[in-house]
Amino acid sequence: MSEAGQPNEAARPAQANGSLLRTEELVAGYLPEADILNGVSIRVAEGEIVTIVGPNGAGKSTLIKTIFGLLHPRQGRILFREEEISGRKPHMITRLGLSYVPQLDNVFPTLSVEENLEMGSLERDRTREQIDYMCELFPRLGERRGQAAGTMSGGERQMVAMARALMADPQALLLDEPSAGLAPAFVDAIFEKVEDINRAGVTIVMVEQNARRALAMSDRGYVLDLGRDRFEGPGRELLADPKVAELYLGGTARIDQAQTQG
Ligand SMILES: Nc1ncnc2c1ncn2[C@@H]1O[C@H](COP(=O)(O)OP(=O)(O)OP(=O)(O)O)[C@@H](O)[C@H]1O
Ligand SMILES: [Mg+2]
Predict the structure, then answer these.
(1) Model pLDDT for residues 130-167, shown as the tens digit of each residue
(2) CB of residue 36 inside a 6 A radius of ligand 1
(3) Which ranges of 88-175 would DSSP assign to H, the alpha helix?
(4) 30 CB less than 6 Å from ligand 1?
(5) Mutation test of ligand 1: which of 26, 27, 30, 175 has the most ligand atoms closer than 8 Å to its C-beta?
(6) CATH level 3 topology of 19-104+172-261
(7) How far is Cα 120 from Cα 107, in angstroms, rounded to an integer?
(8) Could you tell me the residue ranges of all domains in the chain?
């Protein structure tokens, strides 16, 4: 996202086949003998919001961490802007335009809001201007620039973490459970911010427990289970699919409710 909130098209040409990020049959795990991802293939087009849902332990965070280079894939490939990034280090992936907000512990608690944001900048001569832009995007942070991030509320900390990731001026953002642990009012605020960020030109790949809500605002979604992508489709189609609802959304499809919420 550029300062004006528009993606820099000249520097970042659209991909020929329309996919900005994709994984091909990704296999990864933490311990030598145990694969957590058993062949995951997802694709994300430029400008989309794509949500990954699935039961606890399905491998959602593992997938995001593997894409961001925190875990090396054992098999398969990860392509960002048609460049293979499998095995690259996170700081190199950030430089290519892909940023990540972890599920938990995602701020430097003793540093101020402003210092947290500074840590995310890749261009020293633009840091000030970028911080000002983040404070416009997240007015709450603007009011609390000097406050230690660890003393902010859960929702505010989530905003600090998202703003820090955006300081790198990413083309795409990986968000692991942005609404985790938040009170309903903050869940609304965070989802609105995710939509604002997307409208400003940033492609979003997010994992969410709040599956109905997240799918309703997504262009497409994936259901991950036992380390495999089981279902794929437009967010609202997944919500309306009785099998997906039964197995992964806790009951029968309630598209009407999701639509009024979304
Ligand atoms: N650092 C680790 N070392 C060993 N195993 C791990 C590690 N992190 C996660 N796992 C295991 O990998 C599996 C998938 O975990 P992961 O965190 O990807 O699930 P998830 O889908 O994000 O779940 P949740 O919805 O609870 O966040 C789990 O069985 C988990 O215990
Ligand atoms: Mg997780």
Answers:
(1) 999 999 999 999 999 999 999 999 889 999 999 999 99
(2) yes
(3) 90-96, 113-120, 127-137, 139-143, 154-166
(4) yes
(5) 30
(6) Rossmann fold (3.40.50)
(7) 11
(8) 19-104+172-261
Is the shortest distance between the CB of 17 and ligand 1 below 6 Å? no
Our answer on whether the CB atom of 104 is closer than 6 Å to any ligand 1 atom is no
Beta bridge partners of 80: 21, 83
The per-residue pLDDT for 246 is 85
- pLDDT, tens only, 24-68: 999 999 998 899 999 999 999 999 999 999 999 999 999 999 999
Nearest CA to ligand 1 atom 3: 30
Query: Cβ–Cβ contacts within 10 Å for residue 46, how many?
Result: 18
Q: What percent of the chain has pLDDT over 90?
A: 78
Q: What is the pLDDT of residues 81-91, one digit of tens each?
A: 999 999 999 99
Segment (H or E) for 27: strand 19-28
The token pair that represents 221 in the structure block: 């979604």
**Closest Cα to atom 25, ligand 1: which residue?**
56
Please tell me the total number of residues recorded for the chain in this structure.
262
Cα 59 to ligand 2 centre (Å): 7
Question: What is the arithmetic mean of pLDDT over 116-126?
Answer: 94
